[in-house]
Amino acid sequence: MMEEQLRIVIADRSELAGNLYRLLLSPIGAALVVRRRFEEARPHFFRRDKVHLGIFNSNIFGKKFEEIAKRFIEDEPLRMTAKIFICRESPAEEGWRRSLSRLPNATVIIRPFQPHELAALVGRLLGQEGR
Fold it and tell me: What's the pTM value of the predicted model, to 2 decimals?
């Protein structure tokens, strides 16, 4: 039986960050879908091909934090999927970090961070250590 390809959906407004994710996560061999807005990333979680991990930069929230955060609870595919939220270490985002860390299957990391830390976290969440 063929092993299913791992799929990671990433939402980050920064085009440069999208390129860095591709570079950093290429050793994992997952299919990466990078979108600049939450609204563009969300439909991928409802497709037949399973999404194994979502990575969301806090820069996608803007003034819609409450509305988007609600989707992570109400939309079953989003709720059930492992998620990494990348947040700034700022007082302005402290409340967001607290709320996001309480979501099901969610991990919050603070930027700036070391690239290898993100790669290791993704590997752990996807069960890729030692592969």
Answer: 0.93
